[in-house]
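A quick aside before the break. I want you to see a complete sequence-to-structure record at least once, exactly as it would be stored in a machine-readable document. Don't worry about memorizing anything.
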Amino acid sequence: MHPPRANRAYRNVARVLRPVLYAITRRDWRGAEHLPAGGFIAAGNHMTNVDPVTFAHFLYDNGVAPKILAKSSLFSVPVVGWVLRTSGQIPVYRNTSQAGDSLRAAEQALREGECVAVFPEGTLTRDPDLWPMVAKTGVARLALTTRVPVVPIAQWGPQLLLGRYAKVFKPIPPKRVTVLAGPPVDLADLYDRPLDAATLREATARVMAAITALLADVRGETPPERPYDMRRAGGGAGAAGPAAPTADGAA
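That is the input. The structure line, written in tokens, reads:
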């Protein structure tokens, strides 16, 4: 079965990828009851470049065809770019005059009832133990502007298929991939506040705290008291600081 919102190209890609993923993973999908029927933001942690595939696999298996925010350079890669374009994924133009186009396209998709998948950290986590780090505030701006539910989702196991910054894919033996979705993050009290840096940081922190709590549940471990922050001198674990209001990236 395919999600009703998946177009023909999306379905064709799924027909190719899903059998491969079924062969190389042992899936533990949890929390699908928290996925809304209408438009919503699916926000996840980001450990490896294979995350978007396993993330989309969880959503697709549970009746959702996500629109993933992917860095614009991927859209010019042969085959990959064609797949992204024809399946309706959303390019992220980082550090350019087109950066705002990503959020506008995501807002439009959400208003049309789509699921938009984001990785709020904007890049692979730098935390040495793969815990979520301080995120960018694009997810907060998107959530507060559209007022759609933000569903936190944690995944653990994709890094066994492809390690962070690794170049060797390891599909054998099949790897256990756990994905856990939680209830939507409560942001209602922030809707009528000014959309300033403080409000964006607060909303972002709530989303990332929810994702981290879910990941702690999956891993059965205690996360750091404070998330890793790349902007601090040395970027050491335990540092914290405000997130810049930029668009999210998917990979």
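Two observations worth writing down. Helices lie at 8-24, 51-61, 80-86, 99-111, 138-146, 158-161, 197-219. Strands lie at 25-30, 40-44, 67-71, 90-92, 115-118, 150-156, 175-181. We'll return to this after the break.
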